[in-house]
Amino acid sequence: MKKTKTLLFLLFALCSLSQCTTTEDEIYHIVTTVCEDAATGVTVNYHCSRSDSYVLVTQADDSTFRHAKKFKPVSRPWSTAGIENTSTESTFYTKERFVCHATLSGLEADSRYIYRIVAGRTRSDVRRFKTAGEKGAWNFVAFTDFQHRENPVTLPLIQTMKEIAGDPSLVVCSGDHIDVAGNEYEWTFLLDNAVFRDFVYAASPGDHAYWASDRTPDGHYPQYDKPHTFVNLFKFPDNGAASSPGSSYWFRYNNVLFVALDMHNSNLSAGPRFDDQAAWFAQTMDRLQGTYQYLVVLMHKSVFGSDRVDAAVARNIRPQWAPIFQKYGVDLVLSGHDHIYSRTYALDGDRRAEDPARGTFYLDMGSSGDKWRSPDESLVEGDALHARVIDLKASTQSCACNIEVDAREMHVTVYDQHAQVIDRFTTHPARFRKMN
Ligand SMILES: [Fe+2]
Q1: At residue 141, what are phi and psi to the nearest 5 degrees?
Q2: CATH top-level class for 135-432?
Q3: What totals of helices (H) and strands (E) does the chain contain, helices first?
Q4: Which CATH architecture has domain 27-128?
Q5: CB atoms within 10 A of CB 105
Q6: Exposed, middle or buried, 409 (CB in 10 Å: 0-12/13-18/19+)?
Q7: Are the C-beta atoms of residues 429 and 406 closer than 8 Å to each other?
Q8: 110: CA distance to ligand 1 center in Å?
């Protein structure tokens, strides 16, 4: 009898194993992104081997998913086949998948939720998020330039910042998630792990979002014309400039209006796509006046950054964007690109603000990975523009910010990967801007 039972158990185990290995459906690159109104919705993004997946969502205390609501995603087949300069070696080209995004709408403000994705017999692990809408003080975490090619710094830094910030609901990044956007394995290092999860995410694309494939024998990196992989990994609000759909957008989170801009590829810093975004920015700010207290911009290229790293920024991006940010009273511009840490004084246009109630802080967070550079003569601490400059190459420091917001002030604290504070500044009460 005992022998029969053991045989039956072994048979059952073998059947289960074969079912698992032959019918397992893949769900990967799971990221929760912001909706226009972060208090009532989020978007769940993922790639999946099946077309008929769905998302189950419920309140965080319903751990058995008994009261879960089902959301069907927009799901479409996608690969980089047919895209200019694509790498035929990358799994973005060779591996079939459906790109899925499910917008979870009608959520309650200031509430914790859990979700899981179901695809055939496969269920994803359980993910958490919290909606915006809390009253009073709150905080978020900002990164830049993970440039993640399995570097040893990025994931521990994200974990450290989650601990410092107390499990932040919102995480933002000003671009360059990876080095070559066409290499799927670089995105996998960043997105598919035990750290990059359980927050709502917003990001602007970096110029490396346009890097299509590895360096060619003649020494150049082929570029995409659009950030194809970025917009197929992250579905952001569909409210951006016509020339940069999915990579320029705005969203409201508590008392802050965030605007993400697309500063395009490594060779472009002016032209119709920039003009179109500038016009869209002005129209959007005019329309949304009175609906926010602070204005924060995410843009990859640093307006007051290093001339040696990218001389076209001072030549083209600075004269176009600094007057716009001055006109609309932007409080904080979060950038990267240089891989050098630099933070300006509060600037009124392109000079130091005299009135303490005015001015825009430009923060180039340098690097949230291990690609570092040293400053040149255009970045000198204590010059007319820059309050703090750090030679990250010399100090081998990676950076990220915990940003605490209340009704009167926004406090920015910058940490390195060892949880040491390396800079700190405060933007004042949103220029006493009032919300309607
Ligand atoms: Fe970068």
Answers
A1: -115, 140
A2: alpha beta
A3: 9, 24
A4: Sandwich (2.60)
A5: 12
A6: middle
A7: no
A8: 34
H helix intervals, 36-138:
91-94
- Give phi and psi for 209, each to the nearest 5: -65, -10
Give the separation between CA 95 and CA 176, rounded to whole angstroms. 24
pLDDT digits (tens, 9 = 90+) for 214-227: 988 898 899 999 99
Alpha-carbon span 98 to 49, nearest angstrom: 6
User: Which residues share a beta bridge with 269?
Assistant: none
Domain ranges of the chain: 27-128, 135-432
Please, which residues have CB less than 5 A from ligand 1, an ion? 145, 176
Contact 51, 41 (CB under 8 A): no
Say how far apart CA 258 and CA 296 lie, in whole Å: 5
What pLDDT, in 10s, does the model give residues 304-319? 999 999 999 999 999 9
Please give the helix or strand (H or E) that residue 14 lies within, else none: helix 2-23
Centre of ligand 1 to C-alpha 138, Å, is 29
Q: How far is the CA of 365 from the centre of ligand 1 (A)?
A: 11
Per-chain mean pLDDT for the chain: 93
What is the distance in A from the centroid of ligand 1 to the CA of 370? Answer: 10
- Please tell me the number of Cα atoms within 13 Å of 134 on its side-chain side: 14
CA of 14 to the centre of ligand 1 (A): 48
The alpha carbon of 382 is separated from its chain's Cα centroid by a whole number of angstroms, namely 30
Does the predicted TM-score (pTM) go above 0.85?
yes
**For 15-45, how does the pLDDT look when each residue is reduced to its tens digit (9 = 90+)?**
444 333 335 789 999 999 999 999 999 999 9
Contact 67, 57 (CB under 8 A): no
Q: How crowded is residue 351: how many other Cβ atoms within 10 Å of its Cβ? A: 13
Reported as a single tens digit per residue, the pLDDT across 118-173 is: 999 999 999 999 999 988 999 999 999 999 989 999 999 999 999 999 999 999 99
Separation of 91 CA from ligand 1 center, angstroms? 23
* Spacing, Cα 300 to ligand 1 middle (Å): 8
- Strand segments, DSSP code E, in 54-144 are 54-59, 69-71, 74-77, 98-104, 112-119, 122-123, 127-130, 138-143
> Which is nearest to 46 in space by CA: 63, 25, 61, 64?
25
Report how far residue 274's alpha carbon sits from residue 261's, in angstroms, rounded to the nearest whole number. 9
SS3 state of residue 137: coil
pLDDT at 434: 64
> How far apart are the CA of 13 and the centre of ligand 1, in A?
49
